Amino acid sequence: MVMNAPTTPRIPLLDLDLLKTLVAIAETGNFSAAAAAVHRTPSAVSMQVKKMEEILGRPVFIRDSRSVELTEDGAFLLEHARRMLALNRDAVARFVQPDVEGVVRLGAPDDVAERFLVDMLRRFNESHPQVTVNVTIDGTARMIEMVQRGQLDMTLATCEAGFNEDGAEILFREQLIWAVCKGGVAAEQVPLPVSVWEEGCVWRKAALEQLEAQGIPWRVAFQSAHISGQRAAVLADLAIAPIPVSSLGGCIVEAPARFGLPTLPKYALGLLMADDPNPAVIAAADHLRASFASR
């Protein structure tokens, strides 16, 4: 007797039209305006939402007579919908928008430039050779001000973990950890020597608030605006530092549990754009969304 092997249930797909409608509703705040944005009737939009919720088995919107709000699941789906749509636009742009040209003024934190941006911009240059990207590396607060003053077209900004910027589109989330030198003793010192940057730094705020909450005495032993400086302080065993988990490597390791350091939150990387972006800026933003979505 031949027994059929059990089959894994197939996961249904959400097509891009459904995701596009989800984004339109979230951005306009109602079904009628979203219908106009996606060139459908309000009843067709309602049917799309019903189909989405049937596929997922849970609601994505809370609706009443005056407004539409995302549920927690809807907010999660919105983040991924934007990424999937950006991936599609970025891929198609290679074929249908080779003539996009212009200058993009992009801001980015130091650690993002070092860990992610160089490779992302190299690939963007390959697909959009007529677009020039000028990058400014600075602190999140200053770059947000530069976007607001029209000095930058858009900026990548660290957010959450104690800092939230209204209007920032979340592209990527990552766990913060305590980094120490392998075999080092800095984490045993009292007060605890910490390497951070200035007031307003998301990682600093998250780390020092957690230390205060647990009553752990600390001192700022090393200040650097650059992640290379943070690494240097850790490698020299002068201090420990709150950094993203992807920055670990070599002799820079996560602090062992025996040191009793508080758990740090995740932080988010967001994208903040100036009003009325030109086609080159839109193309660069879509490329960043797609690049982070694929990580």
Structure description:
- It contains 9 helices and 11 strands.
- It is α/β, with parallel strands linked by helices and 295 residues long.
- The protein folds into 3 domains: 16-90, Winged helix-like DNA-binding domain superfamily/Winged helix DNA-binding domain (Arc Repressor Mutant, subunit A, Orthogonal Bundle); 100-171 and 268-293, Periplasmic binding protein-like II (D-Maltodextrin-Binding Protein, domain 2, 3-Layer(aba) Sandwich); 174-267, D-Maltodextrin-Binding Protein, domain 2 (3-Layer(aba) Sandwich), CATH 3.40.190.10.
- Strands 3, 4, 5, 6, 9, 10 and 11 form a 7-stranded mixed β-sheet that branches. A two-stranded antiparallel sheet has the order 1-2.
- β7 (192-196), α7 and β8 form a beta-alpha-beta unit.
- α1 crosses α4 (72-96) and α2 (31-37) packs across α3 (42-56).
- The longest helix has 25 residues, at 72-96.
